[in-house]
Write a structure and sequence with these properties.
- Pfam families: UbiA.
- Belongs to the UbiA prenyltransferase family. Protoheme IX farnesyltransferase subfamily.
- Keywords: Cell membrane, Heme biosynthesis, Membrane, Transferase, Transmembrane, Transmembrane helix.
- It is a single chain.
- By secondary structure, this protein is mainly α.
- It folds into two domains: about 170 residues, Tetracycline Repressor, domain 2; about 140 residues.
- Helices cover about 80% and strands about 0% of the residues.
- The protein contains 16 helices and no strands.
- Helix 15 runs antiparallel to helix 16.
- It is flat and about 55 Å long.
- The chain starts with a helix and ends with a helix.
Amino acid sequence: MAIVENIGREDIRPSEAMAGDYFALLKPRVMALVVFTAIVGLAAAPTPINPLIAFIAIACVAVGAGASGALNMWYDADIDAIMSRTASRPIPSGRVQPGEALAFGLVLAVLSVMTLGVLVDWMAASLLAFTIFFYAVIYTMWLKRWTPQNIVIGGAAGAFPPMVGWVAATGSIGLESVILFLIIFLWTPPHFWALALFKSGDYGRAGIPMMPNVAGELSTRRQIFAYSLVLVPVAVLPAILGYVSWGYGAVAVVLGAGFVWKAWQVLAMSSDDTTMKPARQLFVFSIVYLFAIFAAYLVDVVAWRLVAGA
């Protein structure tokens, strides 16, 4: 790959990178979602945890997520330069050299894993290390350019953070943390395939086998709707199993109904609709949905504990 072959020559040039460019390498918007879901996983755990240890654990998850983002941008710099959505990123724009991004990502990865292991829990650290490896190597270097199922399988990387938070508090994996994992895992395909529908030209130019480019728009729309139908009952499952109250359950049902409705609009939209408005709306709503689901979960857990301690 040209971007890798040129690392040695490019690295001898003076760097134009500013602090903001390195921050952009961390994918801060993705990091915010990762941190938030990890906090929910940690808060939901039944084992009390020292606030300082909890802060260290979440900070390590944030740094690990940033490391994954930097390594992803390093490897994907060639295709990022082709796609309009990513062309202004630090590496394709020339503000950060590839070697700098690679070194930055590797240092952050090692730092986050070792700190989490030494100061919090080695099982949580191992899971964080696997998450970084899964995103940077299995998804970015292999699945993304090889199969239209890249988002389905690769979505596991984004689903691990609440499990890491849970393990940091308990030292083990519980069923509740697995359900939190599944919520994100099942949410990922409809979220990213909605994006792929109105950015299929970008993905096509970059040679990325996203579902609309390989299976066609109709098949993609059907799969978005199918995943949405599975996601909704899984998101309600914590209330059914008694992990949280039916206050959360009601929120999950309402949000789920909205998600399915948006997915149905995508399924029903005309093939001649070049605006892809329903897909754009689903993409935006899906972000709101995931934040709202996990916020409701967090509020419910905290409220239960306050009531129990009263």
